[in-house]
TrEMBL record:
Domain Tn3 transposase DDE: 6-271
InterPro entries associated with the record: Tn3_Tnp_DDE_dom
GO-annotated biological processes: DNA transposition
Organism: Actinoallomurus iriomotensis
Molecular function as annotated in GO: transposase activity
Domain of life: Bacteria
Protein's name according to its UniProt entry: Tn3 transposase DDE domain-containing protein
């Protein structure tokens, strides 16, 4: 999006597997999006029992993997460039090679269990601060991501994140159902991005407010409108299915699982304006002019 002065900004949104948007945050485009992944996740004010966060590879760092696990949630990114991903093992290369002849060579480093066990109480305290709102996730992720290697707690956090990433990668590589589930969730988010662009056509999609609080309100208005369209479309899809089945048509539930309520083809964005031509013509004077509006003339100071 574009804000006043031609400056850009980003809107970070969270989409549930039910197609509803439950989190919206305005961030500067130079900030890493993964720093904000946990904010609305932990601050979820809806009744949705959110347990898992799907994202692309760039939205998942070692810090994110660690913090998601420490607060009892799952981070499930779509993995790419797996040859560049450092995976860890808990034994010697020889022993790992015997146990896992195919995957063993991918486990290039041995994880530092002593480092994690020594910092474990501090890691749990950090997780508690996040879970109970004593600190924002974006602040902690940003601070620890930029921390030096000499910082023991930051090193332990990244070490734990490396272990969690290894477990996720192993499941991602071995389980095609798991991969498809992640891709489906990400596709839902992309579909709603397209719907938001269609809805936000006024001012050419520009955020018109100059202050963060006002920009956030404007972004949330778009979220409310998006959720309204999704809810409306879902209801009428359901009515259409009931009608088709009443007519004897076969509509399998397996097919319905692949139908998206995030489309915009059924939405008239510009409304319908009905013009009574005969009534309009009857209001014209003999010269063909429309009558002036006295209230407007009084506002202009042209009459009393």
């Amino acid at each position: 999006m574009v804000c006043p002065g031609g400056q850009g900004l980003s809107t970070y949104t969270h989409v549930s597997d039910q197609w509803s948007t439950y989190g919206t945050k305005i961030i500067v485009p130079t900030a890493r999006e993964d720093h904000y992944a946990l904010d609305d996740f932990l601050g979820n004010a809806t009744d949705l029992p959110i347990t898992e966060h799907a994202t692309d590879t760039h939205g998942a760092t070692l810090i994110d993997f660690a913090l998601f696990d420490l607060v009892g949630k799952a981070l499930t990114p779509r993995m790419r460039d797996l040859t560049r991903v450092a995976l860890v093992r808990d034994d010697t290369p020889t022993e790992i090679g015997k146990l896992y002849p195919h995957a063993g060579p991918l486990l290039g480093a041995r994880w530092n269990e002593d480092l994690i066990s020594g910092c474990w109480p501090d890691l749990l305290r950090m997780a508690g601060s996040l879970k109970y709102g004593q600190a924002t996730a974006s602040l902690i992720v940003g601070k620890w991501s930029a921390a030096s290697r000499q910082n023991t707690l930051a090193a332990a956090l990244k070490e734990w994140g490396m272990l969690r990433r290894t477990l996720h990668t192993a499941k991602y590589l071995s389980d095609p159902v798991y991969r498809r589930k992640i891709s489906r969730q990400l596709n839902k988010g992309e579909s709603l991005h397209a719907l938001r662009r269609d809805l936000y056509y006024a001012q050419q999609g520009t955020i018109t407010k100059p202050h963060l609080e006002q920009q956030t309100e404007q972004a949330w208005c778009l979220t409310v409108l998006t959720n309204s369209v999704v809810a409306w479309t879902t209801e009428y899809y359901s009515r259409a299915v009931i009608e088709l089945r009443a007519q004897g048509r076969e509509v399998p539930d397996e097919v319905l699982a692949h139908i998206s309520p995030g489309h915009s083809d059924n939405i008239n964005f510009f409304g319908v304006i009905n013009v009574d031509v005969e009534a309009e013509l009857a209001e014209l004077d003999g010269a063909g002019w429309r009558p002036l509006r006295p209230a407007r003339l009084r506002q202009l100071g042209l009459t009393t």
